[in-house]
Amino acid sequence: MISSLHRPTLAKVDLSAISSNIKEVQNHIPQDVKTLAVVKANAYGHGAVAVANHVQDLVDGFCVSNIDEGIELRQAGLRKPILILGVVLPDEVSLARDNRLTLTIASLDWLEMAQEQQIALDGLLVHLAVDSGMGRIGVRSLSEANELIAGLRQAGSQVEGIFTHFATADEADDRKFQEQLAFFKELVADLDYCPELVHASNSATSLWHSEGIFTAVRLGIVIYGLNPSGQELALPYTVKPALSLDTALVHVKKIPVGADVGYGATYTSSQEEWIGTLPMGYADGWTRDMQGFDVLIDGQRCPIVGRVSMDQITVRLPKSYPLGTKVTLIGQNGNQSISATDLATYRGTINYEVLCLLSDRVPREYK
User: Fold this and answer.
1) Which pTM was predicted?
2) E strand or H helix at 105
3) 136 is in an annotated binding site
4) How does pLDDT run across 122-138, given as a tens digit for each residue?
5) Mean of pLDDT values over 337-359
6) Which residues contact 226 (CB under 8 A, 6 or more apart)?
7) Residue 94 CA to chain centroid, in angstroms?
């Protein structure tokens, strides 16, 4: 999808906020713990290459979701270790090796498939995934872990790490978290061969569960300045949101009493009203369920009226404004502000999704 450079809709990314957030977390964890910056999904919508380039001297490596995201960083000149957190099938091993990408190995089935296909695994960098209760990927027993590690090493792979992922580290009730942590600790302690990098700490664990920090942490949403728990848990220290999103009024009109606005005629004016149109819609990631939420204009909250269209949004204005007037969708405008967490709360989702849904049609500007 091509970026729409010739319209006033623009996401601004403060790279200094991201580096500051990384330093803030690092100030609260042991100094000898390695930091892996999670830049998957285009760095949660912030721009993977720009973010990785900016923070590369602050971190020990990067985490991405799949092999193409890893290759993108390599092609951009990034040289630090890159761990692919998702499962890559064995037929892509040579591509991973050629690009010095570290693969996650999650099962004995994977190793058996590679051996059946006579795929060379020598020199391959790998981390072992452990399913401690998340239920997605990973081995589920000590015996499976030992057998898989031994098989990979025998095949010539370098088993550099082992990790798990917590399902509820961002929730007030920590019983599930403690069960997973106990399982993972016991498994790691009893391994026949323990890799150098042991990591279980995502953003939430790094913030609220120091007992879950091993030899490395994986920092995701927190480095972009957002609370992993949404509004459930208070942040133990301050981080700064890195992304703001602005657009501008491109059409302003007065409508009479009883006029309908938008698809489905879901909004009807109760009096004479000023309506403004914005060049932003669900194709940009501003989903249809945002009807009824606000944008900020002239330091005031203005409600979205009528359904969000693919390319346009209509809002109710307190008065007529000139075309080109700034409209803030995420960020500060006057004394008012809207965060990605505010949007997520309104939509009944999480701030991760709000940011990741911002499409490539929205240009990113970096400072």
Assistant:
1) 0.95
2) strand 101-105
3) yes
4) 999 999 999 999 999 99
5) 97
6) 239, 241, 339, 340, 341, 351, 352, 355
7) 28
pLDDT tens-digit series, residues 179-219: 999 999 999 999 999 999 999 999 999 999 999 999 999 99
DSSP state of 299: T
Residue 12 neighbours by CB under 8 Å, 6+ apart: 243, 244, 245, 246, 331, 364, 365, 366, 367
pLDDT tens for each residue of 7-41: 999 999 999 999 999 999 999 999 999 999 999 99
Cα distance between residue 72 and residue 170, in whole Å? 30
Contacts of 41 (CB under 8 A, 6+ apart): 65, 356
Strands 61-64 and 197-201, bridge-based pairing: unpaired
29, 193, 195, 236, 326 from 160: Cα distances, Å: 22, 11, 5, 31, 50
The residues that bridge with 197 in the sheet, in sequence order, are 161
For the CA atoms of 23, 65, 78, 127, the dihedral, rounded to the nearest 10 degrees, stands at 80
The mean pLDDT value for 345-356 works out to: 97
Q: What is the mean pLDDT of the chain?
A: 97
Annotate 56-73 with b (16+ C-beta within 10 A) or e (fewer). Answer: beebebbbbebbebbbbb
Q: Is 40 annotated in the active site?
A: yes
pLDDT at residue number 19: 98
Instruction: Determine the 3-state secondary structure of 225 from DSSP.
Output: coil
Catalytically annotated residue among 34, 263, 319, 346: 263
Residue type, 286: W
Catalytic site residue from 12, 23, 40, 253: 40
